[in-house]
Amino acid sequence: MNVASDAIIDVTPIEVPREKPKNRKKLLIVGGAAALLLAAAGGAAWWMLRGESTEAGGHEAAAPAAASAGADGSSYIEAPPVIVNLRSGDGQARFLKLRFILVAADAAKVDGIKERLPVVLDALQPFLRELRPDDLAGSAAVFRIKEEMMSRTTQALGAGTVRDVLIQDLVQQ
């Protein structure tokens, strides 16, 4: 067979007619449902994680401490919630969430306590991190934790500054 070397080969693409989707309405509904599902999942994730953000220090983003006066003239300073890892022998991740209120010995000391609240939280961190889940069991556990918190708070702020530590929530997970 003898083939000419200067033969021109036509390589024009053949156009295949495309069929339009017969049911565009169905395609729009499926796409809209997928977008709605994605938006709902994002909203749910935001809602679940909005209050759970923590700093490396172990306590939630430091909200300003709120103070209020009691009927007996004592002032209450609400500390931001503290979330710490517990020591567990089985290697499972365990957490403790603690909300507490400091009772100022004198209303004039409230501002000083608020300013030094990060020092109090820093003094409590080592103690709370060393707790084991067994330490939280029993009726005397809350009393022992409260006494140790009072002792460490007194060391951090000085004697006569805080009269009591009130535990609002003590949740182990």
Q: Can you describe this structure?
A:
The chain is an alpha+beta fold and 173 residues long. It has two domains: 31 residues; 107 residues, 2-Layer Sandwich (Tetrahydropterin Synthase, Chain A), CATH 3.30.479.30. The protein contains four helices and five strands, in the order αββββαααβ. Strands 1, 2, 3, 4 and 5 form a five-stranded antiparallel β-sheet that branches. It starts with 23 loop residues before the first helix and ends with a strand.
Distinctive features:
173 residues; alpha+beta; Tetrahydropterin Synthase, Chain A; 36% helix
Summarize the structure.
This protein is an alpha+beta fold. It contains four helices and five strands.
Topology:
Elements: H1 24-49, E1 66-69, E2 75-78, E3 82-86, E4 94-104, H2 110-115, H3 117-129, H4 141-157, E5 162-172
Antiparallel strand pairs: 1-2, 2-4, 3-4, 4-5
The CATH class of the largest domain is Alpha Beta
**Gyration radius, in Å:** 32 Å
Strands, total number: 5
SS class: alpha+beta
Q: Which parts are unreliable, with pLDDT below 50 for 5 consecutive residues or more?
A: 52-63
Distance between the termini: 85 Å
Mean pLDDT: 78
Residues in helix, %: 25-40%
Number of helices: 4
Beta-strand level of the residues, as a percent range?
Answer: 15-25%
Q: Give the SSE string.
A: HEEEEHHHE
Count the domains. 2
- Name the overall outline: elongated
